[in-house]
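Appendix C reproduces, verbatim, an entry submitted by the partner laboratory led by Prof. M.T., so that reviewers can inspect both the input and the predicted structure.
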Amino acid sequence: MEKLAILRMFAGFPLFGLLLPDISTFIVGRFKDISPFHIYIECFLLLFIIACTLGIAYMRKLGDRPDSQLQ
């Protein structure tokens, strides 16, 4: 579970790295100035972080049961 949390954390770094310039471009310019490739990567990273978060929640839920083998 720790590896999944670390993976989720390091997936957030490139997401923020792409979001900050895209947000500033959106504020200053137009939405058409943002590369579609950036939008695809940002959506994929968001879905990846959501999947990791759901995986962590599922593992914690399994770990809370008294008969669980996860330690």
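The chain has a mean pLDDT of 83. Additional entries are available on request from the coordinating office.
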